[in-house]
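TL;DR need structure tokens for one chain.
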Amino acid sequence: MTLIPPPNNSPNLSEKARFSHFSETIGYSFKESALLQEALTHRSFGLPNNERLEFLGDSVLNCTISGLLFKKFPTIAEGDLSRIRANLVNQSTLFDLALSIGIADLIRLGEGEKKSGGNNRPSILANALEAIIGAVFLEGGFKKTEICIKKIYAALLQTLECDVINKDAKTTLQEHMQSLRLDLPEYIVLEVSGLAHRQKFMVQCVIAKLNIRVVGEGTSRRRAEQDAAKQAYALATQSV
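>> reply
TL;DR here they are.
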């Protein structure tokens, strides 16, 4: 999911230049580069790491997204607003956003974590994005953090219309499985191809009890899962 052009993170660039490109991408320039560096440091690298900033960023992100949705959808009920927010701040969405802004190329990891592919691990990148939001808030305050989040989320927020209150395919399928007293569907990533900021995902949705196995595709894991869930729901409703 390419939301905004990723920064130029060539190894030949100095750390200062790479941070400068990244700051342009997120719409905020850090006065203290050490704070940005801390936000990009996983615990496997050492101290100080980004865990405390992640804790702060998680709260700020939820508050900011809540406010943006409250203003954007003045007639939508609380339950629907909560569901929309959950889809915007979950790990899958944060991972996609982190990839789109180039965090995978900037994250600092310990050698073991780096060798095991930690710079493409959803939890690590999602947490790093929250840590960056926490760092922006700590240095720049709420208003500048809101501007930063708006820029990072720009493409997603632009496509959010009133029809998003309708349940997404994964939710619809899950509720259907629960109504049949069956286990929830299993989603398996089969393939990830393409450059870090232009990836293509193939995800299989499996409902063993109904002998359903379908493959969805998308420019993010979330979109591929939704595609697979839509296909699976069509088959599940036919088989009952």
